Amino acid sequence: MVGISHGTLEKYTLQGDGQWNEDALIVNEAADIYGVVDGATSLSSYRNKEGMTGGYLAAQLAAAFIGEADGQALEKIAVQANARLREVMEAEGVNVLDASALWSAAYVIVKVNPYSIDYIQSGDCMLLCKYRDGAVRLLTHTQVAHVDRLTLNRMEELRASGVEDPAELRRLLLPLLQDNRRKANTLEGYGVMNGSPEFPLFLEKGTFNRANVESLYLITDGLYSGTESWVSLLDSMDAKGLKGYTDELYAREQEDAMLLAVPRLKGSDDKTGLVLRFG
């Protein structure tokens, strides 16, 4: 049961093709704080002594900091988490002046109040709301969509020139990926928690009222491909259940190992979702 909202909670996370699941869930029923986090590994070769990637560590730090917040505004605790991430990276010898070396995390987090819902968001994690009349409301947008499109367009050009192997494609795309990382927390780019002092300027946040809200959907980017509408995606999640939808998507991606059916940068990304259904 969800604390103050008197509803039900459905959550699920599935590791993709990476060594670590760089996604994380936030469930703090006492404070009615819920969220999903998507860590992004730096483009350097950093691993800690346990072999953990920067993306995994950033996601876990964000989930711990924000998930344990009680009585503090989400924005305030997010800023504190970002500052702490910078301290951890510096302690690990990461060059925090090199944007491509930074560990980072996208997320969407909500705090359910008696009459309203607060949220914060960074990167391309998404928050959607379904009302009792069936209307779907998109509260966030995919902040990295424009830089992802540049990468996918370049991938199409490389395929047209005869490059097919996914590993070789990624190698050739690395300079563009590095350039995209340098756009983090700039007006040409997107907001993401990466320890940058500019991050608070790009943190998205808001409040909306709970009147007639039936369900909230919090998802990492591994759960959507951009090939279907948001309404269709939510309908599929409702019909199949979050786990059923996620497992089916993963199976389709595994059958598309050459990344042809749905253009993307990796076979299967980590996938994490959380659905709150109000009574």
Polypeptide structure, described:
This protein has 279 residues and is α+β, with helices and mostly antiparallel strands. The chain has 6 helices and 10 strands. It has helices at 54-67, 74-91, 145-160, 166-181, 199-202, 230-255, and strands at residues 8-14, 23-28, 33-40, 104-112, 116-122, 126-131, 136-138, 204-209, 213-219, 271-277. The strands form 2 sheets. It has a 5-stranded antiparallel sheet with strand order 1-10-9-6-7, with helices on one face. Strands 2-3-4-5-8 form a 5-stranded antiparallel sheet. The chain is globular.
Layout of strands and helices, then pairs:
Blueprint: E1 8-14, E2 23-28, E3 33-40, H1 54-67, H2 74-91, E4 104-112, E5 116-122, E6 126-131, E7 136-138, H3 145-160, H4 166-181, H5 199-202, E8 204-209, E9 213-219, H6 230-255, E10 271-277
Antiparallel strand pairs: 1-10, 2-3, 3-4, 4-5, 5-8, 6-7, 6-9, 9-10
